Amino acid sequence: KELFVLNGLLDEFEKCVDQQKEQLKQLKDLDNSIRMELASIQHIKANMPTHISRKKVPVRGKEPEVSHSQAAIVEPFQTECLQKSSRCFIKEMKFVTMPEFESIPQYMKGRVSYEQLNAVVDCFNSAVTAKYRILSQPVKTLNSHPRRLQQRFRNQETKDTKGHFFVVEDDIREFTQMTADKRFQGILNMLRHCQRLRQLRGGGLVRYVLL
Fold it and tell me: Per the database entry, which stretches of residues form a coiled coil (predicted)?
């Protein structure tokens, strides 16, 4: 009789476990659905066309600021770009989606969060946009500092970079507040894993080419 009662209790327990598993599966499916929706919304935002990015994304507690000299470089280009929009396309790195972030191995992610990774993407875009706005302007319209920058940009170009958008560490320091430290190198590995950029070495420089 005791064995019969125990068997009955075990059957009831197994039924409860199965119900709990089914509920857990439903919750996971709901969570994945929400994540996919958020990733889709972020992807749409990332691909919305903009002429000038004015948003500020915090990186390690700081917000990138645009100096008066950099603003003087960028603003004249805005009017020209509106008049010649077909010639003013500047490629931007797409933000990393949540599924892509979750596909990154944990040893590579470390303690870097999803928001921190996309904050670096935004800083890359700021550097690329500022660089190619300077490159697109006639030399005669530039003052001394932007003119030196433009010449430096042209000297860094090679046959392998033709038709591609790229920046180097000096550009990142010039136009953002990011520091090229070990954490930055780790984030670069994550962006390469997500196929957002590749490295091109040559002439003592590492060029970060957007894909």
Answer: 10-37
> How many Å apart are CA 20 and CA 68, to the nearest integer?
60
CA dist 84 and 158 (Å) reads 26
Q: Structure tokens of 6?
A: 């125990």
Bridge partner list, 198: 209
Please, which pLDDT band fits residue 179 given cuts at 50, 70 and 90?
confident
Q: What is the pLDDT of residues 70-94, one digit of tens each?
A: 444 444 444 444 344 445 678 899 9
CA angle 111, 200, 159 (to 5 degrees): 155
Give the residue among 194, 132, 195 at the shortest CA–CA distance from 163.
Answer: 132
Residue 128 pLDDT more than 90?
yes
* Residue 173 in tokens: 């320091």
Residue the block writes with tokens 């894993």: 193
For residue 121 the two structure tokens come to 């993407």
Ramachandran sector of residue 195 (left: φ over 0; alpha: ψ -120 to 50; beta: rest): left
pLDDT band, very low/low/confident/very high, at 129 (cuts 50, 70, 90): very high
Q: How far apart are CA 75 and CA 51, in angstroms?
A: 11
